[in-house]
Design brief:
- Helix content is 15%, strand content 40%.
- It is built from 3 helices and 18 strands.
Length: 233
């Protein structure tokens, strides 16, 4: 009986020694004993309240590009990604970075959207400007009798120039005047008729004579009776 009791005491002492040794072992910093998993903290999403665009209206020419910037409020909104779109991509396109490119004449609406909120910008596209490259006249010089008129035709190039407006002028309106290319001889002398389109000018020299005898052209008279009335013997 004593032997059995001593065996039990020895087993208990051995177990306690092992437990104490394990508890006193130093912790290896390179291999820490894992602790319990952290408890996840629920995160409440911050909703977007509004979206604004740097411009509410833009006017472009075909081929032009314009950068738009979208601002999402509040700044700490959870979903701040902005998506861009154009209501008519044949008029203007927009990249997902907000770069608008004018394609053809017309109007379209560019929209920026984030988390269900949106802002828009109206885009108007004008045709590309085609500059005037030259102007010519069908006559470079004419001779007229007083009171007579003649039309000068001007041609502007290229044919598809954006502004083909022609401005007519006379160096001496007292000798010869001009109205939309129609030259009227007023008094004897010489004048220069000019036609200007863009930065280009073409000219025609106008010589005005008094009558058919002076010019050597009997047909300069209005009729034969006038011709005979002007002859003195």
């Amino acid at each position: 009986m004593l032997r059995s009791l001593s065996h039990k005491l020895l087993w208990i002492v051995t177990l306690l020694s092992a437990l104490l040794a394990t508890a006193c072992d130093p912790v290896d910093p390179d291999n820490p004993v894992p602790g319990p998993d952290p408890v996840p903290v629920p995160v409440t999403p911050v909703a977007v309240e509004s979206v604004s665009i740097s411009s509410t209206g833009v006017e472009l020419t075909v081929g032009d590009a314009h950068q738009l910037t979208a601002t999402v409020s509040p700044s700490n909104a959870t979903y701040k990604n902005v998506s861009w779109s154009s209501s008519d991509q044949s008029v203007a396109t927009v990249s997902q970075a907000g770069l608008v490119t004018a394609v053809s004449q017309g109007s379209t609406t560019i929209k920026a959207m984030a988390d269900g909120k949106a802002a828009s910008c109206a885009v108007t596209v004008k045709p590309a400007t085609v500059p005037v490259t030259g102007i010519t006249l069908d006559k470079t010089s004419i001779t007229l009798l007083e009171g007579k008129s003649e039309t000068i035709v001007a041609t502007v190039t290229p044919d598809n120039a954006t502004d083909k407006t022609i401005v007519w002028s006379s160096s001496d309106p007292a000798i010869a005047s001009v109205d939309d290319g129609e030259v009227l001889a007023i008094a004897k002398g010489t004048a220069t008729i000019s036609a200007k389109a863009g930065d280009f000018t073409a000219t025609c020299t106008v010589t005005v004579k008094k009558d058919g005898f002076e010019s050597g052209d009997p047909e300069g008279f209005n009729n034969k009776n006038e011709q005979w009335e002007r002859i003195s013997f």
